[in-house]
């Protein structure tokens, strides 16, 4: 795993497409029991090098009912995005999608190096599509077609606040299921 992570952190495959240059952000170890697969780092995470070190991370930790110390215990919880580097901004605003080179290049070897994974949280549309296939994010989060291996979540951005208000089952049903599944995976 150490050598593999060094290779990931040295990756320059899509460097020409990255406005802030490459800075792969990933936290993994062979003993991980819970894996979080999100989208790609934003500018704040790119600057700090710490995944989910932003408002979305605060919301995600609230969903998990988890303190930062537990969330960042990389011996138990792994964090691996679809795109490891900040992809830039779209002309109309918002971040670009994760670079398409990352997941096909790195996910399989990294997953193979983590045999203890009990549960993977798929966070946001890009991870949901990659691992669960096509379908709306709302359907995948409501129906949870990947359980018990995968648990589907929306991306915890500010946009999700409005979505959650329109879908009260998320807080009433999904968050308790999420917390129970995470607790079981970490036991």
**Approximately how much helix is present in the residues?**
40-55%
Tally of domains: 1
Instruction: Please name the CATH architecture.
Output: 3-Layer(aba) Sandwich
Q: What's the shape?
A: globular
Q: Helices and strands, in N-to-C order?
A: HEHHHEHEHHEHH
Query: Number of helical runs?
Result: 9
Oligomer: single chain
Briefly note the CATH topology name: Uracil-DNA Glycosylase, subunit E
- Which structural category fits the helices and strands? alpha/beta
What is the strand arrangement across the widest sheet?
2-1-3-4
The N- and C-terminal alpha carbons lie at a distance of: 23 Å
pLDDT < 50 runs, ≥5 residues: none
**Highest-level CATH class:** Alpha Beta
Tell me the Rg in angstroms.
Answer: 16 Å
CATH superfamily: Uracil-DNA glycosylase-like domain
- Sheet-strand content, in percent, reads 5-15%
Major β-sheet profile: 4 strands, parallel
Mean pLDDT: 96
What's the total number of strands?
4
Key terms:
single chain, 187 residues, alpha/beta, Uracil-DNA Glycosylase, subunit E, four-stranded parallel β-sheet, 9 helices, globular
Short description:
This protein has about 190 residues and is of the alpha/beta class.
